[in-house]
Amino acid sequence: MNNVSLVGRLTKDVDLRYTTKKMRAVGSFTLAVDRDLRKVTNGKTADFIPIVTWGKTAEFASKYFSKGHRIALQGSIHTRVWEDEDKNRHYVTEVVADRVFFADAKQREFDEPGEEELKEAKYEQEIEELDEEVLSGDKA
């Protein structure tokens, strides 16, 4: 079974592009994931994991996530090989994220939430309700 769940911080904003043939959205970013501090070696305390998202998930990540945001994701590990113009083979291992989530509350600059904050809260509530349905076995 190839399942990955990660929580970490974006090292830069999501890079959103579109494929040339089908104009499908593809987002890429790096997630800094803290290691267990009891097992730290050589002073390194985080792993930097390349992440790829597709379609609506990529567009959502690009719109709502930015450098420094703490997020959670679920997906799978994929490997691929590509060749550059000098015929050198490059091997890539990355996580393809199927689902992405906010992992910490957004700090509010004002006492009353703005339109974006209300949309975000509604989205988070919908995700929580869907998660509850999945966990309880109910179907919509």
What would you say about this model in short?
The protein has helices at 55-64, 115-136; strands spanning 4-10, 15-18, 25-34, 46-54, 70-83, 89-102. It has 140 residues and is of the alpha+beta class.
Order of helices and strands: EEEEHEEH
Label the overall shape. globular
Give a count of the beta strands, DSSP E runs of length 2 or more: 6
Report how far apart the termini are.
Answer: 26 Å
Structural class: alpha+beta
Number of domains: 2
Q: Please identify the top-level CATH class of the largest domain.
A: Mainly Beta
Computed CA radius of gyration, to the nearest angstrom: 18 Å
Average pLDDT, rounded to a whole number, is: 83
Task: Please report which band the strand proportion falls in: under 5%, 5-15%, 15-25%, 25-35%, 35-45% or over 45%.
Answer: 35-45%
Reported for the largest beta sheet, the result is: 5 strands, mixed, barrel
CATH second-level architecture of the largest domain: Beta Barrel
- CATH topology name of the largest domain, in short, is OB fold (Dihydrolipoamide Acetyltransferase, E2P)
Notes on the structure:
The chain is α+β, with helices and mostly antiparallel strands. The protein folds into 2 domains: 4-104, Beta Barrel (OB fold (Dihydrolipoamide Acetyltransferase, E2P)); 106-140, no CATH class. The protein is built from 2 helices and 6 strands. The relative contact order is 0.17. The protein has a 5-stranded mixed beta barrel.
Which helices and strands appear, and what pairs or packs with what?
Blueprint: E1 4-10, E2 15-18, E3 25-34, E4 46-54, H1 55-64, E5 70-83, E6 89-102, H2 115-136
Parallel strand pairs: 4-6
Antiparallel strand pairs: 1-3, 1-5, 2-3, 3-4, 5-6
